[in-house]
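Researcher: Next entry: (S)-2-haloacid dehalogenase (Erythrobacter ramosus).
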Amino acid sequence: MPEPTLPKALAFDVFGTVVDWRTSVTRESAVFLERIGQDPGTAAAFADAWRRQYIAAMIGMKKSGRAFVPLDVLHREMLEATLREWSVDPGRIDEALLADWNRAWHRLDPWPDAVAGLTRLKTRFPIVTLSNGNVALLVAMARHGGLPWDAILGAEVSGAYKPDPRAYLRTAELLGIAPGELSLVAAHHGDLAAARACGLLTAYVDRPDEYGGAPAPDADYIQTWEWSATSLTDLADQLGC
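Model: Predicted structure:
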């Protein structure tokens, strides 16, 4: 097969692709669970349950026609729902504690290859976020992890959450390029499939530990992507950076 044409810019999924949400949220949740008298040993299960709420929320937003709200708002709703699963009434927890717990998503650590890979990719391509995260969340995360973005584009820029086509097309529009000149970089086949359906190029980065070694929930969407890499530094090698 011929080599694909190089993109003019790279747009990155963030949660799971650039940062290790599960390890970070597990670590933070262990602290908060202990503070409210719950078993910190259940923190990994709590993190997984909180993330499952995210997937359900994205589907629910689309079906209900609910007006767009920032991901910080949804994360707080999901946190409270997860606490109820743990038989904990969030109304009985101090508001400052809940707010800080919700900001665990602002403090996610990058994967070990992420900063080096992004730094190399940035030498040849503009690198921006294409995430369902809101701007405040993504800015805090970038500062926490030293992520060298050229631009941080939260879901507010399109007023839509992926996999809504507006999220992908608006990002290309803001960069002043055609959809086919933008590549999404993601660890999720479903995200890449939606981007491809909008005309974007696609670069897959394998993150087998995203779910603690459990199978990814979107494996059924797998295709042959323009690029497939084991890390962001491997992708930099493939793209000549």
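Model: Note for the record: The chain has two domains: 9-20+109-238, 21-106.
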